[in-house]
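Bug #2210: token dump truncated for Fe-S-cluster oxidoreductase?
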Amino acid sequence: MAVDIEHYKDLAQQKQKEHCKFLASLKKKAPKNLDKIVQEVHSEVFNEIDCTQCANCCRTLGPLFTEADIQRISKIFRMKLSVFEETYLRVDEDGDKVFQSMPCPFLGEDNLCSIYEMRPKACREFPHTDRKKFYQINHLTIKNTLICPAAYLFVEKLRKRLG
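Reproduced locally. Full output below:
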């Protein structure tokens, strides 16, 4: 079943102040077992949300490419690094290598990634809801709730779980 991206974006916008306040409270006084709880909530959310029914991140966010990503992916295509970069990447205002344009050129019409096993590190880690010391990326989490229904649900479930 398709994910209603606009619905989740609206909810995230409505709850942005609440979410900011909640996440800031974790930064001040995180429970001792927060990392464990974060892992549990992350797993719960991704049992509910099927990314292939959404793929909004692949349509709207360009991942940052590390040199290791570029080497690994260009090797798959048997392309010289310079040709891969010329074909797919540009340097953004922060000096990072990102896609020339979106959506991701490796996203299929079926919302599946044609390089899934070799995808960039940034894609593998998105939406960062399973990382340790989760409270260190509050600004990123808030941003991600506007793009990723799973990130929104994660914050909501974590709020309920922690009271």
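Output looks complete on our side. The longest helix spans residues 34-48. Marking as cannot-reproduce; reopen if the truncation happens again.
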